[in-house]
Amino acid sequence: MASFLQIADDEKGYDLDLFCVPRHYENDLDKVIIPHGLIMDRTERLARDIIQDMGGHHIVALCVLKGGYKFFADLLDYIKALNQNSDKSVPLTVDFIRVKSYCNDKSTNSVKVIGGDELSSLSGKNVLIVEDIVETGRTMQTLLSLLSECKPKMVKVVSLLVKRTPRSSGYRPDYIGFEVPDSFLVGYALDYNEYFRDLSHICILNDQAKEKYKV
Ligand code: IMP
Ligand code: MG
């Protein structure tokens, strides 16, 4: 089973005043739960684990937009660094898919694929799906079944975060950065109705902000 860094349910996190948080979000957040530096350090190790397992063959990294874009960019930078500093290297190409399953702070039952490249181009390839967070697991299960119709050679999934929640379908990604408590998280490209992607640290949203940015 994939190892991960566990953030406990009673994790106190860090006071916002200890880090740089955009002024426009100062009153919307409870605390910083994963500082940007820790995200980067864990991502560096995930890159190494992935290359150790999948290396040797061409990898197509598939970014699940929009939430996955920061993690995708940073993970690929670390994979690139490994590629250019060791004797062995693997060609890496990229692809993007956009899915939407959330409204306010609730996962909806429908998972919509709304754009991205033709998945058929992934036929016969080693695909690494890069996702921000797995909650119920429905988004990833839907994506995996769509992808399997295109007959890729291998599919692995890396998710920066997995939420500990009774709503989980039991699905677990192949690589996991952090396991997090059942709260709504924002920052590092994770959003609440499109806000908070422009925040570097992963933070817990407060109830007041859920009202403020509700649609
Ligand atoms: P799932 O289908 O329930 O596993 O939800 C996965 C998707 O919901 C993720 O790709 C996110 O886009 C979104 N999501 C789930 N939990 C959170 C959260 O705490 N903050 C922001 N987005 C979330
Ligand atoms: Mg996502």
UniProtKB/TrEMBL annotation:
Compartments where found: Cytoplasm
CDD domains per the UniProt record, alphabetical: PRTases_typeI
Main localization of the protein described in the UniProt heading: cytoplasm
Pathway(s) the chain acts in: Purine metabolism; IMP biosynthesis via salvage pathway; IMP from hypoxanthine: step 1/1
Obligatory cofactor(s): Mg(2+)
Stored InterPro entries: HGPRT (IPR050408), Hxn_phspho_trans (IPR005904), PRTase-like (IPR029057), PRTase_dom (IPR000836)
Species the sequence originates in: Eleginops maclovinus (Patagonian blennie)
Role according to the record: Converts guanine to guanosine monophosphate, and hypoxanthine to inosine monophosphate. Transfers the 5-phosphoribosyl group from 5-phosphoribosylpyrophosphate onto the purine. Plays a central role in the generation of purine nucleotides through the purine salvage pathway.
GO molecular function, one term: hypoxanthine phosphoribosyltransferase activity
Keywords assigned by UniProt, alphabetized: Cytoplasm, Glycosyltransferase, Magnesium, Metal-binding, Nucleotide-binding, Purine salvage, Transferase
Catalytic activity: IMP + diphosphate = hypoxanthine + 5-phospho-alpha-D-ribose 1-diphosphate; GMP + diphosphate = guanine + 5-phospho-alpha-D-ribose 1-diphosphate
Protein name: Hypoxanthine phosphoribosyltransferase
